[in-house]
Amino acid sequence: MQVEISELHRNIYFINAPYYDIGVGIIILDEEEKIMIDAATMEIASKFIMPSLNKLGITKIDKLLLTHGDHDHVGGAVTLKKIFGAKILASKTTEEYTKSPTMAFQKRFGLLTKYLSHEQARELENSYYNEREEGFTLDEYLYEDTRFKINSHKVIIINMEGHIDGALGFYYEDLKLLICGDSIQGEGVLSQQFTPFPMYDNVRKYLDTIVRVKKLDLDKIVCAHPYLPSYSPIVSGKTMKDLINKSVEYVNNINNLVFEGINKQKTTLKEITEYVCREMGINIVPTSAFITIKAHLDDLCNKSIIRWLDENGGVFEIL
Q1: What are phi and psi of 87, to 5 degrees?
Q2: Which of 47, 124, 169, 276 meets the CB 3.0–4.6 Å disulfide criterion with 160?
Q3: CA distance 267 to 261
Q4: Which range is most confident: 15-29, 43-57, 71-85?
Q5: pLDDT surpassing 80 at residue 207
Q6: In the predicted model, what is the mean pLDDT of the chain?
Q7: Domains defined for the chain, CATH in brackets
């Protein structure tokens, strides 16, 4: 299995593991310090990150910046800290996901296990815990709108919540480059393992993030995965605009289908999710769909259109 190292700009490298459908991380060689953005999973950190760092002649990482707290972004953090001495930085909210793998799993995926078969739930749980190490606390917190310099480049920390709380992006103002993690989902991940479906847990925050991104002067966006309609995690030009526009379009399409399902008297999260996927031509419901549809139902609940009767059980009524 090969790893690809792309030079985004002088001394800024993107490590990509195409087989895993994941951009492993970003390496920034500053004149004074070496910085890495995201740590992938424990396995990928060992198989790809460390050999890539060796190939680049890197023996020390000063700072490891995390875009958010999902296991495929924080799983290798402890290894990188132990071997390369990295200080780990992220938002304070992200620490809620890094401190305890058990709590993080329940917070992120606990509800899903109610709608999966026993085998599927066990597989999800096992893969989650196998992809990350023990819990850890952060060495420093990062805050949105903070401005700093790396190699004389101006970098601004951007609030990128919506996919998950606490998500941050890193905007190189002069390079017109945004490193965004999983915060712009388009039509979902182009994957050999999963059916594409955009995943976000808060509709309003997700749309607000896209509005913020649209206001940035951008030439290039670097995502952690290849999100359709793009076939690469690095997007620019028309492909970049299509990715941003498709993100909004899919939110609207999903929202319309959720309303259709409600009008057809579907009154559980499971029924609505299966209906939306069926109408979208998806035969096997991906786990991400439950998270996204739950976000849409939460949004309708906040607008007093529905009310949860049993939120843990996914049962609601129409008001």
Answers
A1: -80, 140
A2: 169
A3: 8
A4: 71-85
A5: yes
A6: 92
A7: 4-249 (3.60.15.10)
